[in-house]
# Entry
Amino acid sequence: MLKYIPATDRHHAVPVSWLSSYFLFSFADYHDPQNIHFGPLRVFNDDSIAPNSGFPQHPHSEMEIVTLVLDGEVTHEDTMGNQTTIPKGEVQRMTAGTGLAHGEMNRTDKPLHIYQLWFVPNQKGLAPSYEQKDLDFLDTKNELVPLVSGQKVLEDVVYMNSNSTIYWANLKEDKEIEFKTFPIRNTFIYVKEGTIYVNGTELGPNDQARMTDEHVVQIRARKDAQLILIDLPGTEANY
# Structure
């Protein structure tokens, strides 16, 4: 079963002058009891941050927090002692665990575009930890590239404490890819740009598909497209 969610259904938040954010799930002042999470995927924010601005240090706990940098560069500092920059094409994961604080700043003169995703971890009380990797995912072609995963059969990915995997795909016009899944798994798709067909349903820029009880996910690009696909456990017992 595929649930199509158009881009217009996203919640648009501009809480401060330097931030434009689209919330795909309930977050901050946006609360929809029918849109809290999809499996362990609890937050998906599509954020644009103006030059020389950003999020000052703030706390988190009991979440796996993943940031994908699509354009620009993030300057990151946290209470674990990490002080790093995360440029376009790199991926960051923080295990908030028992608690940490961090800040995310755009210290450049160019706009910053990121996706930030939060996952409910597969266990509580984890020690806070950090990982960052250059996966150069924005330049791949016509394949699903794993970026972050808690499924240890995958190599050269960022690890997270969730039985989930984040993939990225850049598809040229008329190219097709197939993702094999199981009815006990869920599949989430969000289109960055272009137009695709997912099991026959058309998705355009910033549209979503949330899929359950499927065996195969077939994706074909009607126009050159970029998309994120997330493979998720369907039941809380498998998070």
